[in-house]
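pasting for the record
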Amino acid sequence: MTQNVWAYRAGVDYLAADLTGYKVEAVDGSIGTVDKHSDEVTDAYLVVDTGVWILGKEVLLPAGLVTRVDHAAEKVYVDRTKKQIKAAPEFHRHEHLGNADHHEAVGTHYLSGLSFGVPPA
């Protein structure tokens, strides 16, 4: 991968508050709530609790997908569709958090066939 999908984009204001509890919005609607986030420089991500959306599973979203954070509304916006997020490699926190192979698979999934930073059609 040529872009680091695991780093927040320049201009995204993610440091002003703890993002835990913020709602997460895909380009086509709400996908859940931030359960955990990391703001490590090269390993930043959100763990999102999808609630009933995909049967109560958690998904791992690389921070590079975040287009903006609205602290007043407590919302995080990402540039992928619900379908793309649902199709990501399965995430189990106790097995995959910090797992380099899983991070590579997730990063590849979100970047494959897409121009980084350009919302999908």
